[in-house]
Design brief:
alpha/beta, Rossmann fold, globular
Length: 395
Amino acid sequence: MRHTLFHALAAAAVFAFSAEAASAQPVVFRSHNTFHVKVCADAASGHARCHAHIVTDSQGRPIVNRSGSNSLPAGYGPSDLRSAYNISGTGNSNTTVAIVDAYGYNNAEADLGVYRSTYGLPPCTTSNGCFAKYNQRGQQGRYPGQNTGWAQETALDLQMASAMCPGCRIILVEANTASYSDLATAVNTAANLGAHVISNSYGGGESGSQYYEGAYNHPGVAVVASSGDSGYAGGVEFPASSPHVIAAGGTSLNRAANARGWSESAWNGAGSGCSQVYFKPTWQTDGICGGRMVADVSAVADPNTGVAVYAPYNSRGSAWYIFGGTSVASPLIGGVYGLNGGAVNAASNPYADLAGINDVTTGNNGSCGGTYYCNAGVGYDGPTGLGTPNGSGAF
């Protein structure tokens, strides 16, 4: 199997370091038998940090995978993810999915091409009109300089959106920096460019975020944001806490001998909780939190059951890695919204129709006095929200 700790990986692996990892000793996390580190540094006030995690050895050195079963990279690929979430549709070029991230990514189009060709997905290029890259002002050129960690995040986002909606048009909007101000500008640009979906796999503290929340309010657009990667103890993060955003939590995803063929539990790193800043949207009816509750829905995020991504190791070269974090969940959820292409009213759609949802009822992401703030259970809970997509028409 290509998922649980990918034992074949270690035997045929070499190690590579991003510029950021080489300059400081990373904090190494462990999920079951899998080691992983954050690819983006902690953020200062008024800034966001991306939520991607990369699988490493026990010393925090990213593992570059060169082999896997069936000659494919280890980690879940598109066919696995589409099977797990019962996705049959492919979408079409009338629907635009936007990825918003900070800093530049020199080889975004080329790396996306490697991913899609490896898995037999149709080409998505500038020349065929499927792919376009913009700076935060909507210009095709004058891109910001590359930051390897954020470029790895962007690779993950582009490829997960492709896995769910291979027929969708994809645009990448690169913010100058990871400041709330620049990211908000990029989100508004994505909306102005006609995106039906805007995926944001980053977050930071709620303090001061009110000045930028309006950038995430685009009626009719599915604005998705990852819930975080520090568990319940890490606190609620913005923009996931915006009442105008679809907050994507995280799960562990494993094959199972059941009718679905898969099982899920809450990932212990997924962010969740009750906002201290933003009001509760009318469609949320959980009983304890008086404000905006995070998350709304979820998808795979556990690095131990992570996804294969072709991503940069510096500004010049790329390789296959395994990634996790709720950064995986956000573009997967965004891809499903791209597939169904329907009307969007912030996160209200799944609350109104649970038929397209897999309820996740086990696992937790911390200690919260036995409440749904951090414990998965029947119906709504913080770490996984309402649950994960079940079918192309979910949400």
